[in-house]
Amino acid sequence: MKRAGQVVVFKFPQTNLENKKPRPALLVAQLPGHYDDWLISMISSRTHQYIEGLDEHIGPDSPDFIKSGLKVESIIRVARLVVVSEDILTGTIGEISPERLTKIKDNLSLWIKTGKVNMSLPDERSADDESRMTVEKPELESISQKDDKTDAGD
């Protein structure tokens, strides 16, 4: 039985629905209703794509890294979501801490409600990582607008 917070393997599609490849994904929440459908979030090792206040960093120094089953430093891409049937999830490799899952859900909720990211929550990354991975708000808005134009043509 699957549960929120587990890390699974899923052939996550690109936004144009092409180039599906197996990658880790986070079970965020089971959908209500009579189906075994899950809201899942993509996990990526491309740490430069991190969006501060929205995405969640997990690395070897994280208390739940080993339990997550991830092999390398990764970013849980909170806004990269898909709904899938439990039947097509190929396996569970680990899980994140309940505290991390709560933070992810809080960030997702704030972003959906307001269109803003949560800049007030502390992050476990070091100052060196901060300068390398931070996306400023104006840049974030331009990225979102660019993604909107790109997605509209797909």
Structure overview:
- By secondary structure, the protein is an alpha+beta fold.
- The protein has a single domain (6-152), classed as SH3 type barrels, CATH 2.30.30.
- Helices cover 29% and strands 29% of the residues.
- The protein has 4 helices and 6 strands.
- It has helices at residues 65-68, 98-114, 127-133, 137-152; strands at 6-12, 21-30, 37-44, 56-58, 74-85, 91-95.
- The protein has a 6-stranded antiparallel β-sheet with strand order 4-5-3-2-1-6.
- The protein is globular.
- It starts with 5 loop residues before the first strand and ends with a helix.
- 24% of the residues are buried.
Strand order of the largest sheet: 4-5-3-2-1-6
- Tally of DSSP β-strands: 6
* Amino- and carboxy-terminal Cα gap: 35 Å
* CATH class group: Mainly Beta
Q: Please report which band the strand proportion falls in: under 5%, 5-15%, 15-25%, 25-35%, 35-45% or over 45%.
A: 25-35%
Assign the structural class, choosing from mainly alpha, mainly beta, alpha/beta, alpha+beta, or little secondary structure.
alpha+beta
